[in-house]
Amino acid sequence: MKKIGLVGYPIAHSGSPKLFYDTFAQNRSVLEQYSYDLIETDDFSLAAERFYNEYIAVNVTTPYKEDALALADEYSYPVERIMATNLLIKDEEGVVTAYNTDYLALKILIPQGQKVVVIGCGGAAKAAVVAALENGSNVSIYNRTESKVVEFLFNLKINNPRGISSAVEVLKSEDLAEAVAASDVVVYAISSPVELFDRVLLSGKILIEANYREPLYSKESLDGVSAEYVGGERWLELQAIETYRLIGLLENPQ
Questions:
Q1: Burial, 226: exposed, middle or buried (Cβ in 10 Å; 0-12, 13-18, 19+)?
Q2: Could you tell me the CA-to-CA distances from 54 to 3, 37, 57, 243 in Å, in that order?
Q3: Residue 176's closest CA among 197, 192, 157?
Q4: Closest CA to 189 of 134, 127, 234
């Protein structure tokens, strides 16, 4: 049996195993050859050891998306720009390649050529910035700790062999409401509320939220403001599909 897993802490709530088994419920060939389980530990070194010894691939979630880079021998291009991974795949020779399926999902979710505001600067937020830039969007980012944003943008400019625009506006607290009002898409990639703009400012926009366990928004909560809501469950579903394709369990779309 070839093992796939999810690394993170805490992750007992994760829907990833169920999503895997639901996706392949009608495909006995896959379920006879592959399993999916959780590697839940607050010691990343233990998770890394289990991955090397037991698994062909692992998804990676909070708080290890940046730590997991150290396990990779090779990076996909988006990972070089984001400097965070949420998928490690080990080939038959033991070579580990890092991918970022947050980025792949967001390339689908963020329409091309839009004004995008990203809230947060963790792995998911960084993936949103890179996906939006590569979709030709104007991008602004807000994070409570501005130094983390500055470090990320410096790396983004350096790791840019394709010459994709890396111009991103860094938002101050006092500028966030105005930026949201002028945007087309807001990517909310933190788990706590930012009391700096009212939901009315989201009217006519697409709100993409990463948190699917305890989301801050919903279609119902945005009723009356004409916003399109894309929740974390849809984001997770798209990440999973890209994971299965990269492992070779699903064919790429024609």
A1: exposed
A2: 7, 11, 9, 18
A3: 197
A4: 127
d(Cα 87, Cα 179) in Å, to the nearest integer?
32
Cβ burial, residue 50 (10 Å; 0-12/13-18/19+)? middle
**What whole-number distance in Å separates Cα of residue 22 and Cα of residue 76?**
28
- Positive or negative CA dihedral for 134, 121, 231, 138? negative
Distances (CA, A) of 162 to 116, 131, 158, 203: 21, 14, 11, 35
Instruction: List, in order, residues 6 or more apart from 151 with CB less than 8 Å away.
Output: none
Give the whole-angstrom CA distance, residue 158 versus residue 53: 34
> Do 53 and 2 contact (CB within 8 A), yes or no?
no
pTM above 0.70, yes or no: yes
C-alpha dist (Å) from residue 107 to 113, 131, 242: 12, 5, 11
State the pLDDT at residue 253.
59
DSSP state of 7: E
Helix (H, G, I), strand (E, B) or coil at 112: coil
Below-50 pLDDT ranges, the chain: 254
Q: Which residue has the tokens 């988006």?
A: 78
Q: What is the pLDDT of residue 254?
A: 43
The catalytic residues are 65
- Backbone torsions φ then ψ of 176, nearest 5 degrees: -65, -45
